[in-house]
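[job 4471] stage=fold_predict status=RUNNING
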Amino acid sequence: MIYHVATSISVGHSDGSVSIITTAESGIEKFQEWKEHDFELWTTCFDIHQPQLVYKGSDDCKFSCWDIRDSPSERVFQNPKVHKMGVCFIAKSPTDPNTILTGSFDEYLRVWDLRSISRPVNEASVCLGGGVWRIKHHPFVSGLVLATCMHNGLAIVEIRDEKPEVFEVYDHHHRCQRCERSMSKG
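[job 4471] inference complete, writing structure tokens
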């Protein structure tokens, strides 16, 4: 079978395995499948700049990258030590091919520099006060992301020079904390 990125998706399974599914004229076909984790695989995604790479995050706290050009796939790196709880989300920067973000149940949004894979990656983080469940890059403003937090609403985070800084937080009562601080001063 010939692999085509534009017609493929990566799917994480509750048993810790991942499948690469591709569409063909005959229908949907499994391109590859492998198991790396003993716990739930919460997130998996292709690298938008290097589509042969697949990133994975699991309830076992591991963040890893695999090259699917080989069969079986070859692990590029794995970091099992930084996340203190399960990795919930992975988001590759649409504008910087060297930056990737991870969200974790440990309440941290992490910014990774993929150029230093000997460690395997450099990492900066910010605590958002709730498990970082989803991350969405702004469609037009580079370095601005929205993070949804399990117990702390939404956070708008600005990332400059690989350092994340909370710009604004909206709690579960839909009140902007930055606005609250401004009103209490005036």
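[job 4471] summary: Residues 5-132 form a domain with the Methylamine Dehydrogenase; Chain H fold (CATH 2.130.10.10).
[job 4471] exit 0
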